Amino acid sequence: MKDKIGIVVGIGIAVLVLVTLYFYVQNIGNLELEEIISIIIVIILVALVLYILWDRIKNIKRGLPAQDERLKITNYKACYYGFIASIWSAVLSPLVSGIFFDYELEGHYVTAIVVLCGGLAFMISYLYLAWQGK
Amino acid sequence: MKTRIKEFRARYDLTQEDLARKVGVRRETILFIEKGKYNPSLKLAYDIAQALNTTIDELFIFNENK
Hints:
The complex is a heterodimer of chains A (134) and B (66).
Chain A: H1 2-28, H2 33-61, H3 69-101, H4 107-132
Chain B: E1 2-3, H1 5-11, H2 16-23, H3 27-35, H4 42-51, H5 56-59, E2 60-61
Antiparallel strand pairs in B: 1-2
Helix pairs in contact in B: 2-3
């Protein structure tokens, strides 16, 4: 039951993100390169989340648990990598932007970079560790 | 760590999925344990041994040199 609630909540959040993204794209007017890159990263993250949810649904249908002890450990490790990526992106993104592009990043851009880098690091490490069985 | 899970599964004509269902884990977890890529918890090792009517030390071969 807990697994099913998790899956329903996950699908709900993914749909809400896509709806928000749709309204954002509708109202923004001209899309610039950094916005296009951010949108693509968000779409990749949603696609990966949907893949993980589909994998869990498949297991539940077969009578197997959606998550077991190995995946819980994988989850903790991926959270750790996501956290490290968030911290480093918060530190490095303003520095890189200032030093290499001579441009001072605004706070909301740094927040977006931190969320996207953390999310991407979490997803990539989760899928890698899950596939490798480490 | 080497295991004899595959050998015991064959003895009882169980697939990885059957064993996974018996011990309440995903099929991939059994696969990774068989390959020696994942070290199960003591509880899971005990559950697998119970499901295969054997003991932990019969099922898992611990290599001290590694």
